Amino acid sequence: MTFEQLHIYYQEHGKRLNENFAKNLDLLTADGRYNLNAFLLADQNSTTIKVAKFVGTKKTQLIENEDYGYCSIIKSCKKVLDKLDIENKTFAKVGYPFREEKSFIDRDALREAVINAFVHNDYSDLMCPAFYIFSDRIEIVSYGGLIDGMSKQELISGCSRPRNRELMRIFHDVDLVEQLGTGMEKMMAVFTPKFFELTSNFFHVVLRPEYTTEKTTNNEETTTEKIFKMIQDDPSIITKELAREFDMTDDGIFYHIKQLRLAGRIIREGGKKGGHWKILNLHTFI
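Below the sequence we write its predicted structure tokens.
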């Protein structure tokens, strides 16, 4: 196994790994062989890190299925963070006295959830975390559940018992982790405990806009339904007309139209001039 990527990440943060790095980072077994953590951090391995994207809110129509594995787990983590950052769009909202911009999912909380999934996953059976993108949420599934002897309340309160202490240390060395316990604190500052579910084998995180402390989601959903009804009444209506009707920016209208398109309720036929919207179903917006 080779570890060029690991050396590069340490160098980027002003640190240098010497010839004894495997021993110093606890990447060896008692008899001097590479251990599981070494396998995960190697330049090439057989890990699979899936990021799947679906149309709408159900796993019925897959539109993207990328694998960011087969390389150092640090590189995989950075790739997943970059992918989800791209998917986590920023939307504009008209307010007084300033225009407000907000992400679909709180960016800091999303970052912490991704890193936690990598660091606290149980890799003993080579099961890796998986990430799912829907029109109304992002789901993260990691394996292992709670560490024996730790309660859900302790987890929520920020108590930290790393499943993979060596991985945690290395992620800290390359500035992916700040300090123990801060990740959960950042997520709990934005979401309620409903955002994750625990079983004996899985840690299932569901990040939705409605879990944010800003109580705007219901209004946004109502506006989306109103826009759908206007498009239903006049399929040729244009964005600027909708923006005037709802006193919103074009970006704001684009956000609601995107939700309708991802939910499979409308599609655009034709160009901006002379085109129209086609209604695909009449179910209540979810």
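The two ends are 48 Å apart (CA to CA).
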